[in-house]
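Give me structure tokens for this 532-residue protein.
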Amino acid sequence: MAFPLRRFAFIFSIMLLLALGPGPPSAFPQGAESAESWFKRGFAQQRKLQTLEALASYRKALAIDPAYGQAHYEIGWSYWSLGRWSDVVRHFELARKYKAAAPDLPRYLTAARERVKEGGRKAVRVPIGIKASGGGQGLVLVARFQNYNGKPKHPADRWERFVHSPKSVQISPDGARVFVQMLEGGNTVIFDGKKLLRLKVVSHRFGGKQAGLFNRAETRAYARRFKAAGGPRAFNRYLGKPVEGAFSHGGRFLWVTHYRRSFDRNGVMPSSVAIIDTKTEAIVRVMHTGPIPKFLAASPDGRLMAVVHWGGNTVGLIDVSSPRPEGFRHAGEIVVGRRPRLDYDEQVNRDHVCGFCLRGAVFTRDSRHLLVARMGGGGIAVLDVKAKRHLGTVFGMKPTPRHLILGPKDERVYLSSNRAGYVSAYRIADLLSAAKRKKRRLRPLLEKRVGPSIRTIAISPDGETLYATSFRGSKVIALRAKSLEKLFEIPADSYPVGIAVSPDGNHLWVTSQGYRLRGGNSVMVYKVLNKD
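Here you go.
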């Protein structure tokens, strides 16, 4: 069943909880003990992702007014986020009986009934302690932070209300901090990389108090450039959806892209990137970008941050040579092919109507060239960063190339192909040569199908082991980097996406985002077993 973006975001995002509002008033008078006051309290708690607390408040509202349709509707969505499908159906049916103001209720009631029939079979939830090994090495699940089981049995299985739609994970160079981007939750959640505990939540909601994070001249320039109909009056007041991250200045600053801003559901206006000071663990600046920025890549020479725009066929360059965030400045933009049209109506899904759908990117060792994966149309685009020019696109990769990482000594680049389920390896020198000679196709150095829907890949610090997340396979796959020989695979919670290896090589962090309101809402920590 297809779900509109508005409702999909509702489940995992406080953004649409705000947009939908608390619904019609109850027939009961306002007051400390009124159904209306308990409903509002529950709604406010759900905005903060306090699902269990919200459920308690909604129940008190229903104890006063059992026919409060809107309370039944909202409590149904709270149960949906916890995967309690029978409770969802029961309260959605009561919401319909008592005429809750919810035009899409019949569709979601049908979807919830389907989940009951499925018996939850499609949601994979792996137990703490699960282990797999091969080729003299292995992994064991030692900890998890999740938002689907409020009363876990294992002490290392922790319920965390801020774990909502976790997309990517970045580990600081010293391994002390782990940053997870909660796409629909609108937060960056910081964990202790050694003690495996949650430390802090950084919100990507911007209002009047955060005005100083923006450069006014930059805001005016981008507002003039992207004249989308229905643009907001307050351009810098929104909830950003954090998607990917990259470090600069030796790990001092973490850059986080905002896949969308809450006022721009169609993704036709500029978005932004937040800069987090990892010492203060707070956002210290927000810079505008092109539409739908996803991936980030920092140049090895420390001078540039590349922002890859999924929705614009462009890569924005930011000069980060200044030691202070206020000194960072836009340094131009490179167009891959040509810019796509952006004057779409609300029905266009910009996740798919995105031109070349630029995704993963990596700089060459000399910082001169940037390699960018094109999920739309295929191939790897080769950019001359110094000349700010697209040299050409090299083809021959399996469908939907997604993520790129450098191999040992930066001599080769590894590529994941999402739809095909492949991992490939290419010599960087061959890619550059092919692009300069306008050669259309290039054979890979290595290529192997490893599983369904391969998303993010990561390599161990010693360069020997490659790890890949299989989104539809609900597993993590370990490969021998030198040959792409599959060593072993280990189950993961449904729909894993992000993955990162700790600098000491001892832990593997994996995010399970979820898909179409199924699974996900999980951050898993695997311990790497000794190779002895």
